[in-house]
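Structure in, sequence out. Go:
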């Protein structure tokens, strides 16, 4: 696989299409089922956050997901033209606290960081660009 892309409206009803896209990418790259499920979880978390928060309520927008292979990894680039937001600037949720003691939010990016090998963000030409990568199977 060299490059695949999917563009979705900011509507969580479209999430099943995202799952199909990730499954296809993972199948082509020979990821096992467990890793495929983890990648689905991490990327869905990031994309749903864009769908829910990037655009003002009631405003139509899109989120693009690009998948490509580079340097023995699969790289997912999630981009949108919504409100600037750097999820990597948020501190990890303190998972030692009970649910009642924790502040709301932060678990999603924590989960993404746990699953992916690298997570980075940049604002480029009015676009939020979140880049997630995972080493390919058999590439320690």
């Amino acid at each position: 696989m060299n490059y695949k892309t999917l563009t979705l409206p900011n509507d969580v009803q479209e999430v099943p299409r995202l799952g199909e896209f990730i499954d296809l990418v993972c199948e082509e790259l020979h990821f096992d089922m467990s890793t495929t499920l983890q990648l689905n979880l991490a990327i869905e978390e990031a994309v749903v956050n864009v769908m829910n928060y990037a655009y003002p309520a009631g405003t139509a927008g899109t989120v693009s997901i690009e998948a490509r292979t580079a340097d023995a990894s699969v790289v997912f680039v999630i981009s949108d033209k919504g409100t600037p937001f750097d999820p990597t600037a948020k501190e990890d949720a303190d998972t030692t606290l009970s649910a009642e003691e924790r502040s709301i939010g932060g678990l999603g990016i924590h989960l993404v960081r746990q699953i992916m090998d690298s997570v980075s963000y940049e604002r480029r030409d009015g676009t939020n660009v979140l880049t997630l990568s995972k080493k390919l199977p058999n590439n320690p």
